[in-house]
Amino acid sequence: MTADLIWKYIIIILITVFLQVLIIIPAESAPDNFNKKIDLNLRDVELETAFMMLADLADINLICDKSVKGTITLQLKDVSFKDALTMIVGSFDLDYSTAYNTIFISTEDKIREKENTAVEKIFTLKYITAENAAELLKKQFEQIEFYELRNGRILMRGSDFAVKRCGKIIKEIDIPLKQVLITARVEEISRNKIKELGVQPDQLTKLNIIKDKNEKIEKLELSWPETLKMLEEKGAATLLANPSLMTVDRKKAKLLIGDQIPVKLERVESDKTVSTIEYIDAGIILEFLPRIINKKQIMLNIQPAVNSIGQTLSEGLPAVNSRKAETTVILEDGQTFAIGGLIKENIVKNKIDIPVISDIPVLGKLFSSEEKSEMHTELMIFITPKIIETKKIVDVNKTNKKEEINKDKQGGFSASKAETIIKKYKNKKESEKTKNNKKEFIDLTEKEIKELLQKQ
Prior knowledge:
By secondary structure, the chain is an alpha+beta fold. It is elongated. The protein has helices spanning about 5-25, 45-60, 80-90, 110-115, 130-140, 160-175, 190-195, 225-235, 390-410, 415-430, 445-455, and strands spanning about 35-45, 60-65, 70-80, 95-100, 100-105, 120-125, 145-150, 155-160, 180-190, 210, 215-220, 235-240, 245-250, 255-270, 270-290, 295-310, 320-325, 325-330, 335-355, 370-390. The chain contains 11 helices and 20 strands. The protein starts with a helix and ends with a helix. Helices cover about 30% and strands about 40% of the residues. The longest helix is centred in the first third of the chain and has 22 residues, at about 5-25.
């Protein structure tokens, strides 16, 4: 036999052994300590006992079914648990699978049957939708079939192992989401009027410290809450809106304070003019995207915009005048911050004249005049986000429901009102039954109390 032929046989044997090892190794994730090195020396030992001793050395959970029979003699030194297990099961036409950090040993047919046996299970979801759950799990378990059912339920069909894994993941992701309550205060401030009052527009959101010659604090200028209150009283600021809205963590919310103006659009299709109606948002538009960082901090992306309809263009479409801003900030829970700089300029014409005389042709112009003035207004938006725990909302709802049930039992009265009615009734009855200055106490049953309250 030539050397080349010998090498060919060796290569074929190595490839065959390699393929057998690939077939034997299961697809599931291996338990911890799977690669732990072990030493073991056995002689004529029951196969089941050998597996148990092997698992004990590697500190791994292991189960053998009744098909594991026979005796074995082996000597292993500095061999990984995985290699030892693979060699032993391969020698006895056995196989193994892993689930929940445990190894299950049986015949190859039983292992394949276990992996291919389809089971069905229905899971009821509380906080996430069946659609979102199916979309998430399909990426990890392509072999499982998902069916969305009514009332927030989902049906899964697949191998027992995969379905159990899905159930475990659902339990981890189907949790109540935190919510964010966002309070917005929208103020329109006349920059012309606040200058007349001696307040600089760029100082509205600042707290200025005034010191004397000795560097001692002489006075503090007003901060923005007090300043706004003063400006509103003087007519220099107008509160346009003070809305609040709640949204789920990492979900965008939109608030429109204004109108949706219909616009007729026309286009030509197949030599025909087709008309459609589209709506343009006009007013104050606030878009929020909150991200809860921890229990006390929120990252908030805000996109405020002010849209108004301008002059009509030559095509018949209205121009949209827009003032926009966008910012992302990190705030403490309940902290307020301000967005400014949305400035609008209006030209106001004022006519001054003398009644009657100014209406005389030609001569009337001598007794009238026009003045043009520029009015600058600035839109300022104050935002306050607050984290709302879902558990607190649920607890409040349960408390309210419990109070409603108790109120229903008490004939529609509150607890204090019902107690007052019962007390008056008992005092009246006790006074009627008092004999020889000896007072008799009245005890009412639940049925008598209910009848008493229903008569009120």
